[in-house]
Amino acid sequence: MEIRDVANKYKYKTELHLHTFPVSACSEIRPDEAVEIYAEAGVDSIVVTNHLGSWVRTSYSAEEYLSDYYEAREAGERYGVNVILGAELRFDGSNNDYLIYGIDENDVDTLGYYTASDIATFYKEFKNDRNVIIQAHPFRAGMERVPSEFLDGIEVFNLHPNHNSRVGVAARYARKENLIVTCGTDFHHPHHEALALTRSKAPLKNSFEVAELIKSQDLLFDFSGNIVIPY
Question: Which of 31, 48, 30, 21 lies closest to 210, judged by CA?
Answer without folding.
Answer: 48
